[in-house]
Amino acid sequence: MKRLTYLTAGAGGMYCGSCLNDNASARALREFGWDTLLVPCYTPIRTDEDDLSIDRVFFGGINVWLQQKIPLFRWMPAVLDRFLDNPRLIRRVTARAMETDARFLGQLALSIFRGEEGNQRKEVRRLVRWIVNEGRPNLVLVTNILIAAFAKTLRRQLDVPVVVMLQGDDVFLEQLQPPFREQCLAEIRRIAAHIDGFVTHSEAYRDHIAAYLGIDQQKIAVAPLGIDPAPYQPVAAERRLARTIGYLARLAPEKGLHLLVDAFIELARSGEFPDLQLRVAGWLGPPNLEYAD
What we know:
By secondary structure, the chain is α/β, with parallel strands linked by helices. The chain is built from 12 helices and 8 strands. It has helices at residues 17-31, 61-69, 78-84, 87-93, 106-113, 121-135, 151-157, 169-174, 180-192, 203-213, 257-270, 289-292; strands at 3-9, 35-41, 139-142, 162-165, 197-200, 220-222, 244-248, 277-281. A 6-stranded parallel beta sheet has the order 2-1-3-4-5-6, with helices on both faces. Strands 7-8 form a two-stranded parallel sheet. The protein is globular.
């Protein structure tokens, strides 16, 4: 059986579309015969189905932040690392909304992109050591480019393909302040040389992200998002009280909620759908409170 190490990125205490997709993809890959290990980075993942990830976190959010801010933590013993990376501790710390505004994360992002040359070099080596000794994969799949800087280090120890998903990386990068954005983009182009392939969910995003990151479009495959229909039952027509448009995502301008609202207003004004309603749900972070209002 082929083995796959799948690195996913937790989003603190909130439900995250990428986490849900990674968890569902890991389940499907297992059904297709891949021995898949779903490995959380930053924080444990949160899903609305059975969590398939291992009970361990790499690049733990608490540890990464401390290593960036306090040089002493870059040399602390493994026993302290295990304490700081304990999934239960991280869940407790991230139970409340956390500030993840990328405008304040430029220095940290740049350091992580630098891999073994950054302040989190200890985390890079720990992850690579685990992949080589315990993951033992035939393929490594990474949920986004933000955590792929370990690929160069991995190459020196294990000759396996590394594939990176590209899904919203540009949204994060666009919020970085100069000169960090330009420096991070330069590091990404360096990282891309050690990546065997990339995956996006649409042709439009493939075209956009290839130009944005300076990646050869020929290295990017398109795998459209899907949904498992098994848990859903058809809704009887007589129980459908109104024609409904649903929105389920972060309440944020980059998700286009304002465009949906404008479109809904136009449809409602047309009179063609007198029973039309819009239902909105999703995570609302502090930076977007004014936008949502």
